[in-house]
Amino acid sequence: MSAKLHKFFLTSDCIPSLHNMHTMGNEINLDNYDEEQARLMEEMCILVDKDDNNIGADTKKACHLMKNINEGLLHRAFSVFLFNSEGKLLLQQRAAEKITFPDMWTNTCCSHPLNFKAELEEENQIGVRRAAQRKLEHELGINPTQVPLDKFTFLTRIHYLAPHDGMWGEHEVDYILFMKANVDVTVNQNEVQAVKYVTPEELRKMFANPELAGGMMCLPRAFIHTLVLILYNLSNPPPSSSTRHPHDSLVQAHLRNLPLQVVGRS
User: Main EC class of this protein (predicted)?
Assistant: First the structure.
């Protein structure tokens, strides 16, 4: 892993040890939720410790239940920020059918590598890249040829916790992936209800007045706004390549202004 791991907790609760923890999952009935979304809750996510070491697997449902999160359950995830050739960021509005964070606007794609060989592979983040390519096609209909694995730029990892309601939430080590590409989008309406491209200024206005977008952003506001400014700079580099900063150094410099704690391995 080349990038440091940052912590970003949206709660004051401490995160205890995972040792000997019994996760709750089967006890929660999903019959009242969308059938396809309930099926996807049985996918097996990759469990990690606070240093992003693989320690096992559990269902997507178990990983997103606040009862388990409050007891320390942590899984691996990714967030894709895709910019077009004009430097605009592709956002998606999550479908109403989604069990966690329905109707909310977020970055291009947020999801999880799954617990099978191709997506467990860690060298050069290839497993996470494969998962990102898979989910971009699943959610947005983007052909994998338009988002090649070697064109994803891995920037950093963020360890963050975000409650949604009393039952569901997120507790992830989130791999931040950046790509600049022009893509054809055909949304999967069970996953996504709308998409839009935005400039940094348009994104700032969405944060200032969420009603303009029809829903709140589901990633941490200060983090995503700062990160998009970083990515916008990367997608519009200065004329002289000699003045460009290494990706991780640029991220580290900007993140110093956020309430992030550097932890784990570099």
Answer: isomerase
